[in-house]
Amino acid sequence: MAHAAPHYNRGMKFKVTHREKRARAGVLETAHGKIETPVFMPVGTLATVKTISPEELRSVGAQIVLSNTYHLHLRPGEKLIKRAGGLHQFMSWSGPILTDSGGFQVFSLGHMRKVTNKGAIFQSHLDGKRVVLTPELAMQIQRDLGSDIAMVLDDVVGYPATKFRTKEAMVRTHAWLERCLLGPRLKHQAVFGIVQGGMFPDLRLESAQFVSNQAVDGVAIGGLSVGEPRAKMNEMLDLVEPVLPTNKPRYLMGVGAPIDLLEAVERGMDMFDCVLPTRIARNGTVWTKRGAVNLFNAKFKTTFKPIDKACQCYTCQHFTTAYLHHLLKEREVLGIRLTTIHNLHFLLELMRGVRQSIRQGEFAIFKRRFIKEFGA
Question: CA 36, CA 51: separation in Å to the nearest integer?
Answer without folding.
Answer: 25
